[in-house]
Amino acid sequence: MTVEAETDVIVVGAGPAGSATAIHLARAGRSVLLLDKSTFPRSKVCGDGLTPRAIRELDLLGVDTHGEQWRKTAGLIIHTSRPQAYQLPWPELDAFPSYGAVRRREEFDDVLRRHAVAAGARFRDGVLVTGPLRDDTGRICGVETDAGQFRAPVVVAADGNSARLALAAGIDRDPSRPMGVAVRTYFRSPFGDDLWLHSWLELWDGAPGRSTLLPGYAWSFPLGDGVANVGLGLPSTAKAFGKISYRDLLQRWLAATPSGWGFTEENRLEPIGSAALPMGFNRHPAYRDGLMLVGDAAGVVSPFNGEGISSALETGRIAAEHIVAAFDRGVRAPAGEAELKAYPRHLADLWGGYYCFGRLFLAVVGQPALMRIAARHILPVPGVAGLMHKLMANLTNERPVDLPDRIVHLVSRIVPADRP
Ligand SMILES: Cc1cc2nc3c(=O)[nH]c(=O)nc-3n(C[C@H](O)[C@H](O)[C@H](O)COP(=O)(O)OP(=O)(O)OC[C@H]3O[C@@H](n4cnc5c(N)ncnc54)[C@H](O)[C@@H]3O)c2cc1C
After folding, report:
1. How close is the Cα of 209 to the center of ligand 1, in Å?
2. Residue nearest to atom 30 of ligand 1 (CA)
3. 389 Cβ contact list (under 8 Å, min separation 6)
4. Atom of ligand 1 minimally distant from the CA of 310
């Protein structure tokens, strides 16, 4: 077994959360070892959709999203059983760009990983982390892997939904917090060259109006070159959650779509993949004994829309800020430890109210009848679709300028915060 010299920080997992953490830390002058069990580039089951929130984080990371490899989007089109769809451009906001993008995760994650290496992080792929190393006091001081031991005074768990490191450190999932499951595949389709993300809010388990209505939504996201990422997601508040095959559900939903959309077996380009969506701080505490959780490992997928890339990037940035401050104040000193302990509080201040409200939102949409009433009778009320768009993508001005901003801010403030 090899035992390597100590680095400042070990980051486990080179998805968006891990690479973002590594980039911010390396830029701040810390030595970083980024480990991943996969060999890069690697694919990841995802909708590949990036909201303006994610684009803002990419800007902060120095990733240029203007090239043609980034399929830019103008906003979201919401379909319900009403004939008229709702076309909702990304809002014009002071703190966010007014465009989103779609890019295959195989490429996207590799772009970020290469930025981490360019910033100075040391990257090793094909290294499976099996658990934490602890010192005599019980504090985590490195990781055990299939390639030996690696030591650092701070370890970041960015290993995604499996959360193997957090689990091995005794940080379990909180079953009172929501979960989701999503499935997706790729089709050659006219939707592939659209400028818009499409989502179908009334999720029928077969023919619309003649089968069971489920909570959740289906999507088609354009990758360009006539290829669309198509999938659906179901929250844990759904009665059917955990009891049905999500792949079969997607197959039934696809079979009921008009043939002109191209979602047919002949046009399917890849197998159907599925994965869990850990939502609303469903693993906590996000810091304990030298181990920090970011991204899916911390369960920060949005309960409103299943978006997890922007929060993975954001938790990476925020975790890095606290780690850098901890090193400045003495990473093994009480003042440094206080900096690390402040990370979950920072997340709670940022999203605690919003995620708690999201939990309530999922309890409501878990009732298909209520979801149907909302889609048919509430969404058409002027202004409501725009408000929902801002709320679900968490896109508001930092200083509210219009009614939707004010409502979203107020709701996030008055709802008691869920703690990460
Ligand atoms: C079907 C589906 C569609 C989705 N669509 C969207 C979308 O359109 N937009 C959006 O914003 N979000 C979407 N999400 C959510 C999004 O994919 C995740 O939230 C996001 O990938 C989280 O990033 P992460 O860096 O935390 O984890 P991951 O991207 O999962 O990265 C974790 C990394 O850790 C590595 N790893 C794991 N275990 C170990 C170990 N023991 N040792 C070493 N390395 C390890 C893995 O190889 C991987 O590279 C979707 C999810 C699903 C399932």
Report:
1. 34
2. 160
3. 75, 76, 78, 88, 91, 395
4. 11
pLDDT tens, 273-298?
999 999 999 999 999 999 999 999 99
**Residue ranges with strand state E in 248-350:** 273-278, 287-288, 291-293
Residue 105 in contact with residue 223, Cβ under 8 Å?
A: no
CA of 44 to the centre of ligand 1 (A): 7
Sign, CA dihedral 363-364-367-371, equals negative
Distance between Cα 161 and ligand 1 center (Å): 7
Phi, psi of 264, deg, nearest 5 = -115, 165
As beta bridge partners, residue 222 has 228
Half-sphere exposure of 404 (CA within 13 A, CB side): 19
Centroid of ligand 1 to alpha carbon of 43 (angstroms) = 10
d(CA 345, CA 291): 15
Query: Residue 21 in contact with residue 158, Cβ under 8 Å?
Result: yes
Residues touching ligand 1 (Cβ under 6 Å) are 12-18, 35-38, 44-49, 128-129, 158-162, 164, 182-184, 231, 275, 277, 295-297, 301, 306-310, 312
Per-residue pLDDT tens digits for 155-195: 999 999 999 999 999 999 999 999 999 999 999 999 999 99
CA of 352 to the centre of ligand 1 (A): 22
